[in-house]
Amino acid sequence: EAGVAQSPRYKIIEKRQSVAFWCNPISGHATLYWYQQILGQGPKLLIQFQNNGVVDDSQLPKDRFSAERLKGVDSTLKIQPAKLEDSAVYLCASSLETGGTYEQYFGPGTRLTVT
Amino acid sequence: KQEVTQIPAALSVPEGENLVLNCSFTDSAIYNLQWFRQDPGKGLTSLLLIQSSQREQTSGRLNASLDKSSGRSTLYIAASQPGDSATYLCAVQMDSNYQLIWGAGTKLIIKP
User: Fold this and answer.
1) Distance from CA of A18 to the nearest CA of B (A)
2) Mutating which of A102, A104, A111, A113 best tests the B interface, going by the most B Cβ atoms within 10 A?
3) How far is A30 from chain B (nearest CA, A)?
4) Hey, are the CB atoms on A40 and B32 less than 8 Å from each other?
């Protein structure tokens, strides 16, 4: 079974530029998550999709971050314009309910550096 | 508001030792608790998931325990190996939603 795919793996941009990340979840997983992980911290949920609908985006900075999940499969996360504090690893995860528990499977992440 | 704490932030032990990683949480009304491993440049890998009704889970050399009443979980690693070097994170899932609430992790180094 193929895992969660993310691209690019690394990205360096200057502040005020735009950037987009892509995620392809495990086939058949209805739920998709985007996390931001700042160095030395645990991941912070940015947005959660159930199929192509948003379940939770309460921690997404909507003035600069946007995300979509077209057709309930792939997803993109965009930052426009980027700030220095956006430097982090952006993790995508997907899940399929198993026995009533949503176990999440993570991609390798995209490391973003904003200079 | 649920808060998850992992102490220490870093731990270094010689190869072969048994060790315990700690995770504490402030709200005992959790749905489950998970332990993850994170290797540099890689994503997170789920190690063990303990349902709120369970006391422990085991997988190979790993054993995770859960004491909801005291708000604590431990991850026990037996006969540590250099390949166990990684950051270990715990996360809790609350009853009313599916969002994971994460600790900051413990960076473990096993010295050959």
Assistant:
1) 23
2) A104
3) 13
4) no
Nearest Cα residue to A52 out of A21, A20, A30, A84: A30
DSSP 8-state assignment for residue B103? -
The tokens for B57 are 């889970």
B58 touches chain A (CB under 8 A): no
Q: Are B61 and B77 in contact (CB under 8 A)?
A: yes
Distant-in-sequence, close-in-space partners of A99: CB < 8 Å, separation ≥ 6: none
CA nearest to A102 within chain B? B98
Pairing of strands A110-114, A53-56: unpaired
Secondary structure element (H or E) that encloses residue A105, with its range: strand A101-106
Cα dist. A3→A94, B51, B88 in Å?
9, 24, 20
- On whether any CB of chain A is under 8 Å from the CB of B94, the answer is no
Q: What is the pLDDT of residue B96?
A: 47
Render each residue's pLDDT in chain A as its tens digit; 115 residues: 689 999 999 999 999 999 999 999 999 998 899 999 999 899 999 999 988 899 889 999 999 999 999 888 999 999 999 999 999 999 999 988 644 567 788 999 999 999 9
* Residues B55-67: tens digit of each pLDDT: 999 999 999 999 9
